[in-house]
């Protein structure tokens, strides 16, 4: 019955090809996207930088497969608040104070911090699946985006594994319609608003004493 119904809809609108029908089906409202993300589906939504491709951390393999992404390129854990991310990292009290100062200055914003990853789950700390960073699960990149849409989604889903929405090695896609074409199996938010500046986040790695800039983006870390 489903196939006949779909064929009738396409026949009724002869200018809608099967390819574009798939795109229409992949573009969803906010509630559907949140429900899909919480169920472990691949989703896409705007951020302050470039649109994100995202899923639950334990489903991180979906992103690597969809993007045809090399295992040596880790994903970013994105959340609505810094407090949602601290359980996934570990450090000394002095280090936490340094990290908090940076977060207070630049978050929410286009800065990803690569920090030592928690290696235990004890109620206070949480351990991420190794699939988030297959080649080096001892570190994790974390970020809170300066995007009301993204934070509204993340507040409902909890922290998500994220990366830019594009095939590996290609430029990030800039519209949700383009993402729906390239990733028809992902649920993409049906919106033209809040699509970001088009420049990926700055990535800064903590070395134990200072910050090493792995990628320079819009933010310059002082």
Can you offer a commentary on this structure?
The chain is α/β, with parallel strands linked by helices. The chain has one domain: DHBP synthase (Alpha-Beta Complex), CATH 3.90.870. The chain has seven helices and ten strands. It has helices at 2-12, 18-26, 30-38, 61-67, 93-106, 148-157, 176-182; strands at 27-28, 43-45, 52-55, 76-78, 111-116, 139-143, 160-164, 187-189, 202-206, 211-215. Strands 1-8-2-3-7-4-6-5-9-10 form a ten-stranded mixed sheet, with helices on both faces. Helix 3 packs across helix 6 (148-157). The termini are far apart.
- The CATH homologous superfamily corresponds to DHBP synthase
Please trace the helix and strand order, writing H or E for each element: HHEHEEHEHEEHEHEEE
Low-confidence stretches: 1-17
- Annotated CATH architecture: Alpha-Beta Complex
Anisotropy-based shape: globular
Give me the Rg, rounded: 18 Å
Number of helices: 7
Helix content: 25-40%
How far do the termini sit from each other? 60 Å
Q: Give a count of the beta strands, DSSP E runs of length 2 or more.
A: 10
In terms of structural class, how would the helical and strand content be classed? alpha/beta
Please give the structural blueprint.
Layout: H1 2-12, H2 18-26, E1 27-28, H3 30-38, E2 43-45, E3 52-55, H4 61-67, E4 76-78, H5 93-106, E5 111-116, E6 139-143, H6 148-157, E7 160-164, H7 176-182, E8 187-189, E9 202-206, E10 211-215
Parallel strand pairs: 1-8, 2-8, 4-6, 5-9
Antiparallel strand pairs: 2-3, 3-7, 4-7, 5-6, 9-10
């Amino acid at each position: 019955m489903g196939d006949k119904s779909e064929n009738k809809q396409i026949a009724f609108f002869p200018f809608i090809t099967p390819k574009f029908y798939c795109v229409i089906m992949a573009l969803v409202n906010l509630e559907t996207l949140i429900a899909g993300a919480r169920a472990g589906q691949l989703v896409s939504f705007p951020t302050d930088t470039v649109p994100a491709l995202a899923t639950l951390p334990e489903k991180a393999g979906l992103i690597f497969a969809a993007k045809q992404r090399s295992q040596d390129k880790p994903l970013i854990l994105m959340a609505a608040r810094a407090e949602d991310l601290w359980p996934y990292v570990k450090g000394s009290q002095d280090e936490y104070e340094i990290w908090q100062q940076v977060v207070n200055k630049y978050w929410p914003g286009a800065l990803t911090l690569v920090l030592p990853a928690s290696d235990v789950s004890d109620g206070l700390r949480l351990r991420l699946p190794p699939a988030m960073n297959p080649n080096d699960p001892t570190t994790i990149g974390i970020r809170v985006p300066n995007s009301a849409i993204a934070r509204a989604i993340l507040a409902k889903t909890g922290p998500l594994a994220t990366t830019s929405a594009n095939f590996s090695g290609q430029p990030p896609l800039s519209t949700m319609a383009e993402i729906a074409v390239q990733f028809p199996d992902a649920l993409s938010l049906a919106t033209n608003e809040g699509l970001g500046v088009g420049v990926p986040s700055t990535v800064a790695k903590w070395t134990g004493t200072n910050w090493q800039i792995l990628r320079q983006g819009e933010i310059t870390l002082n």
